[in-house]
Amino acid sequence: MVNREDIGAMRRQYGEHGLIESELAANPIDLFNSWLKDAAANEIVVEANAMVLSTEVEHQPSSRTVLLKDLTAEGFTFFSNYGSRKAKQIAENKNVSLLFPWYPMERQVIVIGSATKIAREDSEKYFTTRPRSSQIGAWASEQSAELSSRQELENKFKELENKFAKEEVIPTPPYWGGYIVDPISIEFWQGRYSRLHDRIRYVREKNNNWQIKRLNP
What pLDDT is recorded for position 23? Predict the structure, then answer.
């Protein structure tokens, strides 16, 4: 076990590269897309599109990692079982946050917004692009429900694998689909020297333009 003194002494010296207002894109989606491409090209970053999705119901926060699967001017899209814990929490409170932790690049992005289901046809279109095993997995997993054992899940997967063996196209489960997070703020964090990090927050105004604010680190 790492002792408390060692944990307290953990430090990293951050770099000189930062965020300059005069060089920023007017729309945060453009800056995010640039950072995402940088992260995807970085060999040290594992799954650049991984993001921590946080929900909240009755003052109880809940977080998990999901994968960003589409990015448009309208927002950030991910997919899930609609019977899962996160889906039930979103049904009660659509306000969510997304965190992209690109630590090797000394960067992170926090998105605040509201999550809503995407059109059924869009979910079905994406489902057809998934590997066949992942498609079967979506049918096999009653996400967030308790299992008696790992074997129970493996048996269900095998059963469905046999069921769909002669099917060229596996249908999209009726309880599976996408969400899009419509952002109201997007904050970019860039590590800098002496802990004088850059924090730039884009806040969407009523006319859908974005106001850029610099925050203390």
Answer: 87
The single-letter DSSP state of residue 193 is: G
Residue type, 101: P
> Minimal CA–CA distance to 83: which of 144, 26, 34?
144
Considering Cα of 69, then 94, then 103, then 205, what sign does the dihedral take? positive
Q: What pTM did the predictor assign?
A: 0.90
Taking a C-beta distance cutoff of 8 angstroms, is the pair 124, 64 a contact?
A: no
Instruction: Give 122: exposed, middle or buried? Use CB within 10 Å, 0-12, 13-18, 19+.
Output: middle
DSSP class of residue 27 equals: S
Per-residue pLDDT at 4 exceeds 50: no
Catalytic residues: 195
Give per-residue pLDDT as tens, 49-102: 999 999 998 889 999 999 999 999 999 999 999 999 999 999 999 999 999 999
208-214 contact pairs (CB < 8 A, 24+): 210/26, 210/27, 210/28, 212/21, 212/24, 214/21
